[in-house]
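quick one before i forget lol
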Amino acid sequence: MPEPYELTLAQAAAAYARRALSPEELVPSLLQRSQKLDASIQAWETLDAEGALAQARASAERLRSGRARPLEGLPFGVKDIIYTAGLRTSAGFKPYEGLVPSYDAAVVARLKEAGAIILGKTVTTQFAVSDPARTCNPWRLERTPGGSSSGSAAAVAARMAPAALGTQTAGSVLRPAAYCGVVGFKPTFGRVSRYGVIPLSYSLDHVGVIVRSVEDAALALQALAGHDPRDPASSPRAAAGIPTPLSQVGNPPRLGLVQDLLDRAQPEVREHVRGVSQRLAGGGAAVQEVHLPLPMELILAVHRTIMQAEAAAVHAGLLAAHADHYGPMLRAYLEVGHLIPSAAYLHAQRLRRRFRTLAGSLFEGVDVLLTPTVSNTAPDRSTTGDPSFQGVWTLLGYPTISLPSGLSADGLPFGVQLVAPPFAEGTLLTVARWCEAALGPMPAPPLPSS
């Protein structure tokens, strides 16, 4: 049996069921791993060792007594813009260093209700936007892990946690997952409640999860999804059509390779994704080329206008009171956002609706879309990378997943992105599970094994 910290959520749950492992063994293994590695990776903002061990003891007792819940004893990290009762939520912002919420965000409450263990809070870029966080990429410490869910991706990749919550307003779940060689999953807008998550953009914020297998993404979604009247964007359809665990591999899918994104990728990424599509086709998938219904530059401009204007509105009061505590990139971003005319914002929303109407044609004759997750491999730590390939689908609110798909010539992860229509997570995860099996396992980063 591998070391406990190496196990995915599904593997740990299976080991619990066989009585081959206990939460009282898994949690200390993860804590020891974190204590060994985090001085160099810096994925954790707050590691709640005492609380996690207490939760592990309670979970172990429920497992022994036959009272286990769906995620009983399975550990998660939580991005540090998501409220956790009794645990500091600082959002990378000095005035919030003493902020200890009295209640859990809806997603944290749902995890706890399902029996999950909260290990601690993972590092985020400030307010989940621009200025790079201190976290390093476990594959190469001088490279970015991506952002804004920097700590969540790095912790999962480095085997310091099997799963972690993240958020995405442009590309902040899938991009760090791709750069760190793990799975990033963003459900449909409105599928998962944002109540108790520090906002950035009213109409673009999503909560997602970073894990190491598609089966784990499905397990997490079953706990996280559901209507919440406290979130105005929460859909009445939020609990409908959630897939069952995906231990089996389904039939070969029909994939639409989005040529517009492939053309914008760096040559190394473009060649890799073409090779991936050929491998999937060789395994039985039907692959056809598709094109965006509007120019990509226009789509990205619409996303940028909406996100920047809404972020400026969200932060107006706080920026006025604490401007000096904002990172330089974020402060400039918000100040420019205040200059966007209301007419430009409204026109961007009109174009967004048009894009939604036209985008349905992308799925004619295909099950899901296939694209590079990012245009490049992880760049240096002066940036969090290019969010454009994820931002297209975040603008639409479509469910997306990033799968690790191999390593570059210099040993950095590649990722491919799959996209489905709204509330088609069942199809997306089923296809992703097939692709995951066809692509084969991703190695761990070259870090100490114990």
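fyi Residues 4-248 form a domain with the Amidase signature (AS) enzymes fold (CATH 3.90.1300.10).
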